[in-house]
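Hello Y.,

Per our agreement to keep a running log of every chain we model this quarter, I'm adding this entry. I've kept the format consistent with earlier entries: sequence first, then predicted structure.
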Amino acid sequence: MESKNYSKLRQEYLKVNGEKIYNQLVKSGKISIYLNEIGVQASKYEKEIVNEIIKKSHIREKLRENNSIDFERKKKEIRKIAELIVLETLIYV
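Predicted structure for the entry above:
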């Protein structure tokens, strides 16, 4: 899975849309801890979403048996969906 820098995305979002919160975190010296926690949480959530979608759709067994290229393509699509969910629920809020 390609590495996404959710921490950096959250930081940029807060600079523009959550200036008050961002400044409070910077002044308190907690910005790095906060961004690291968001990054870890977002990555974990993304993996959980991907695994849940694969499990519920049963694509793993079906596609792996028949065509590994299709399986990898489908996993990539699922990762994109999971990334959008993470961005909308954890990063851009």
